[in-house]
Amino acid sequence: MNIHDIRLRFDHASCSKCKGAGSFISPQGSRPCLSCSGSGKTLTKRGKIGFQAFLSIRFQKINASEVKPGDFIRQSGSGIFNKVETIKAEKDSLGRIWIKMTFHGKRETYGSFPALEIERLNQSVSIEEAINQALALS
After folding, report:
1. pLDDT of 97 over the 70 cut
2. Cβ(114)–Cβ(101) below 8 Å
3. Which of 53, 73, 89, 99 could pair with 134 as two cysteines, CB 3.0-4.6 Å apart?
4. 97-103 and 107-113: which strand pairing?
5. What whole-number distance in Å separates Cα of residue 3 and Cα of residue 8?
């Protein structure tokens, strides 16, 4: 289930820009609507509140110092969650602490905290449970 499918579980209406078509005709040909990402539907105010509640239930913003091996994390703005395997903290000459995280035994990411914004996937709540809790709040 991708994030666009989840969004449409909340209160939505036909897109006002493409009139629900999901695309529009331009001189270059048919283009997907950027407002609705081609679905033809956008969230209402109530739907936006519910979807934001879902995001806050399912994804927790944390300080980089709270990351531990086994967490699924992503840097804010990135769409991909990676499982943290190892963490190594180092201090630089300016006193900033940098963390080195190994993902899937291959990639390494460095970040300075507390400046590094990280979201942790809340695995204790399933997608369906988070949707139901958010719908109850909206």
Report:
1. no
2. no
3. 53
4. antiparallel
5. 9
> Cβ neighbours of residue 133 under 8 Å, at least 6 residues apart?
53, 54, 57, 125
Q: What residues contact residue 129 under an 8 Å CB cut-off, 6+ apart? A: none
Q: Is the dihedral of CA 47, 121, 82, 128 positive or negative?
A: negative
Which tokens belong to 42? 């956008």
pLDDT for the residue numbered 116: 64
In terms of phi and psi (left: phi > 0; alpha: psi -120 to 50; beta: otherwise), the region of 113 is beta
Q: How does pLDDT run across 34-87, given as a tens digit for each residue?
A: 888 888 999 999 999 999 999 889 888 887 777 788 888 876 666 677 777 777
C-beta of residue 116 within 8 angstroms of C-beta of residue 73: no
Q: Determine if residue 16 is left, alpha or beta; phi over 0 gives left, psi from -120 to 50 gives alpha, anything else beta.
A: alpha
For the beta carbon of residue 109, count every other beta carbon within 10 angstroms: 14
104 vs 54, higher pLDDT = 54
